[in-house]
Amino acid sequence: MSLIFFACVVRVRDGLPLSASTDFHFNQDFLECRKRLKALSSALARYPSRGTAKGRNLSIHFLSSGDVACMAICSSSYSTIMAFCFLEELRWEFSASYDTTSINLASRPYAFIEFDNIIQKVKFHFNSTRGSRAKANWEKVEEELKFQPPVQLKLEDTELLNGMTNGGHSGVHLEVVPTYRMQPVTPLGILSLVLNIMCGALNLIRGVHLAEYSFQEDHEGIGNVIAFFVPFLACVFQCYLYLFYTSGRKVKTFVLLFCVCFCNIHLYGLRNLWQIAFHMGVASLSSYQILTRQLLEKQPDCGV
User: Fold this and answer.
1) Strand partners, 175
2) What is the per-residue pLDDT for 284?
3) 3, 100, 38: which is closest to 301 by C-alpha?
4) Of 9, 92, 104, 277, which sits with the fewest C-beta atoms within 10 Å of its C-beta?
5) Best CA proximity match to 30, nearest among 80, 87, 84, 74
């Protein structure tokens, strides 16, 4: 029976994966544990070089050296000393395969995908009964753990899942800035952007000209000036909502559409029905494109 379920190599300062993995387990406990491993990997710089996050069924062990850290998900019944023996050998194998002092660890981390073969090989030896040869390092690791015991964490702590540090480091927060990728821009979306820019420009030009006249002669026409400038701003924000992801997109989209429609109805007389229908149609098309352009589905991460 496997006692080491998953292992990886990451960069210490930001948790950037330096290895891929073919380990796939559909057990819910494992999937939850791997989420916490990813969150913990981005906070390794806050911890000592050795640490253990214990759970009811699974535990996470990590061992860092310089800019590289090895991490593993093991059964909670697996010996802590054996787990660090495994991590020591994995670190040695990685150092032997790659010159971590000169290699650019920030460039193309998945170039290390072939290291998965070495991970699987070492993991197999430690999981099998023939892996008893690893006990040759037992005394050395045991002695090191006496003088430098690993920091103890709890796997159930929600702080790990949220990417926050604890275990004697409470008050230190890891700030993770989420990045969102939208689906590709469609030809119809490009058309809506062009039409939106054109409508915005028309609103701005008409608004500026009307403002010059109103401020000089007709002060009662200020309401019409506002009715031109508001759709101009709405067109700008519609373009922004289509190109970039923001929270509450649906509510913002409907508010902008309402503003465009209301202001154009107010401008009846300065604009004929065809002009009003054109502006409202462009706003409706833009709103439809905003609502249909969703976040890009998360790509498979090769089990890293």
Assistant:
1) none
2) 94
3) 38
4) 104
5) 74
Q: Are 221 and 210 in contact (CB under 8 A)?
A: yes
C-alpha distances out from residue 242 to 183, 188, 238, 259, 295, Å? 10, 12, 6, 17, 11
Distance in angstroms (rounded) separating the CA atoms of residues 223 and 227: 6
Query: Residue 168: which of 147, 143, 149, 144 has the closest Cα?
Result: 149
| pLDDT, tens digit, 9 for 90 and up, residues 180-238 | 567 888 899 899 999 999 999 999 998 888 888 766 666 667 888 888 999 999 999 99
Residues for the chain: how many in total? 304
Q: Does pLDDT of 166 surpass 70? A: no
| CA angle 178–58–161, rounded 5-degree value | 20
255-287 tens-digit pLDDT: 999 999 999 999 888 889 999 999 999 999 999
Alpha-carbon distance of 235 to 253, in angstroms, equals 11
Helices of type H across the chain: 28-41, 80-97, 115-127, 138-147, 158-161, 187-216, 222-243, 249-266, 273-292
The CB density around residue 230, as the number of other CB atoms within 10 Å, is 19
Per-residue model confidence (pLDDT) at position 113? 63
